[in-house]
Amino acid sequence: MAKSWEEINARIASGDAVVLTAEEFAQVAAEDGVKAAARKVDVVTTGTFGPMCSSGAFLNFGHADPPIKMGEIELNDVPASGGLAAVDTYLGVTEPSRTRGIEYGGAHVIEDLLRGRAVRLRARGPGTDCYPRTEIDTWVTLDDLNQAYLFNPRNAYQNYAVAVNSTDRTLRTYLGTLLPKYGNATYCSSGSLSPLLNDPTYRAIGVGTRCFVAGAPGFVAWEGTQHNPNQARDDNGVPVAPSGTLAVIADLKAADAGFFSAATMSGYGVSAFVGVGVPIPVLDEDLAATLALTDAQLSATVFDYGVARRSRPNLGTVTYEELRGGAIEVEGRKVPCGPISSLAVARRIAEDLKRWVAEERFTLSAPLRPLPGPGAPPFKPLEERGEPEPVLGAEEASGDA
Amino acid sequence: MRRRLDLTFPPRQAKKPITWHLVRDFDLVPNILRAQIQPGQYGRMVVEVSGKREDIEAAMAFLAHEGLEVRPAASDIALDEERCVVCGLCTAVCKPGAMVLGERAELVFDKDKCVYCEACVSACPRRAVTLSF
Ligand code: SF4
Ligand code: SF4
Q1: Which of A225, A352, A364, B123: disulfide with A154, CB 3.0–4.6 Å?
Q2: A22-32 and A343-358 helices cross at what angle (nearest 10)?
Q3: Nearest chain A CA: its distance from B89 CA (Å)
């Protein structure tokens, strides 16, 4: 039994589609079997809401009179990129404020804009014939901006690390505070609700996939940065360590501060909780089988963050069911654990998306281009080396051609 | 009456049997909520004492005279539910299990278990937990 994208979209359009969240689907599959569940259900919705550092927004301010070519740009004292055209910028969520440090950063500016607050824009420019002005100091709201869209280079990580700390001092990391001597463990995934854990080999999620981004309808724009489909996988083909990622795009003006929340990881830096959800069509039984996986069948790898090297010691795997239980076993010890990604909000995202698809007829888009899958060129670390030798004769060679 | 005190010990005082003095000399009932004391280092202890008002005041004067820094300790932990995104990160640092995730992944705060260690205050990425004195 296989269903096509067109069949599923026709059922969504006519209001007949059966849509369940990934958790509900797993339950149906457990009761009726994967085969029956695949027949009965058309779309499964997923969701995740954790700190996603690689996020930010493109903004266009419009031209002042006289106009300025903005070079150094600050929004509420947070530097934004001046390397675009005259009145465009990209504001990264992790950028700290010049005055308040990591207690207020790019993520907080975006959250303030979303909450309708005015933000102070200060910029300097070189003063050119077409852009004579050299300085501007004004206030803008989200409504004032021409374009404001989230473009998040890396969201929705396919699985993540479970972090512990073997050293005898407290560590402040992007995975939260890690207590000394394996005092706790933290993890960051919505497990069985997580988008890429439900479609582990990227059959239904690719470039052009319509999805939920921070409360707005958005798209998967590309593979995410650091996308690494070649990680170790379990018997179901699901990665057991950080693997694929998504770059996503959505209109900031349609986003909701309930699904985009600024965060400060003490002793580490600024980040933002971003809500991402992807509706997945139940195309066939193979896809249904991974959609039906539960927290008991999904695992993550424990890494020792006490060793600050590129490859941290791997201390084995644990299931999401164990993690949700509040304690895991590491090296023979019982270690209390807590999440940094909100399951409660992930559930709200999957529910909202279910309503979008079932009631608001949010149809699905087949990938325009697949994401690189297992077997893709390996993900490379940065090797340090000296300046490469110039390529001899390059100029003459081009002259000869 | 009951008072919660936040005591900082200078290195040379770390070996003194302070709690014993509180009991014997001032008739107080101490309940140590948190202590980190090592010989030769600055130490810190959060202790709840119950007893008569004048005894508590006399004990505080004694502690100050002994070179300890005496401050009122946090008496309340407040959770701003508007700011909280229910990530659960506070539960990962709350040793006594005062902050835990419930059945439906909701955040449950059991004040009775809280020892006012403040670990959740700095751990919360949303700055949703605050202390008051
Ligand atoms: S760490 Fe902060 S935001 Fe997260 S659950 Fe605890 S109080 Fe809420
Ligand atoms: S102060 Fe916070 S971390 Fe410490 S016991 Fe109370 S709730 Fe738990």
Answers
A1: A225
A2: 80
A3: 5
d(CA A26, CA A19): 13
Residue A130 annotated among the catalytic residues of the structure:
yes
CA-nearest of A126, A274, A266, A283 to A190 is A274
> Which of A146, A290, A150, A281 has its CA nearest to residue A219?
A150
Q: Does B100 touch chain A (CB under 8 A)?
A: yes
pLDDT at B71: 84
Contacts of A16 (CB under 8 A, 6+ apart): none
Q: What are the pLDDT digits (tens) for B33-78?
A: 878 777 778 888 888 899 999 999 999 999 998 888 888 777 678 9
Are B125 and A186 a contacting pair at CB < 8 A? no
pLDDT at A401 over 60: no
List the catalytic residue out of A130, A188, A211, A337. A130
pTM score, whole prediction: 0.90
Nearest CA in chain B to A171: B123
Give residue-wise pLDDT tens across range A345-375: 999 999 999 999 999 999 999 999 999 999 9
By the 10 Å C-beta count (0-12 exposed, 13-18 middle, 19+ buried), A396 is classed as exposed
- Residue B34 confidence (pLDDT): 79
Residue A352 CA to residue B84 CA, distance in Å, equals 20
Interface test with B, best of A53, A170, A177, A271 (most B CBs within 10 A): A177
Does B72 reach chain A within 8 Å, measured CB to CB? no
B98 touches ligand 2 (CB under 6 Å): yes
Question: Best residue in A52, A342, A345, A347 to probe B by mutation, most B CBs within 10 Å?
Answer: A342
- ipTM for the predicted complex: 0.92
Question: Which residues does a 6 A CB cutoff place in the pocket of ligand 1?
Answer: B 79, 84-90, 107, 124, 126, 128-129
Q: Read off the pLDDT of residues B103-120 as tens digits, 9 standing for 90 and up.
A: 999 999 998 899 888 899
Asked if A329 contacts A223 with a C-beta cutoff of 8 angstroms, the reply is no
Give pLDDT tens digits for A323-347: 999 999 999 999 999 999 999 999 9
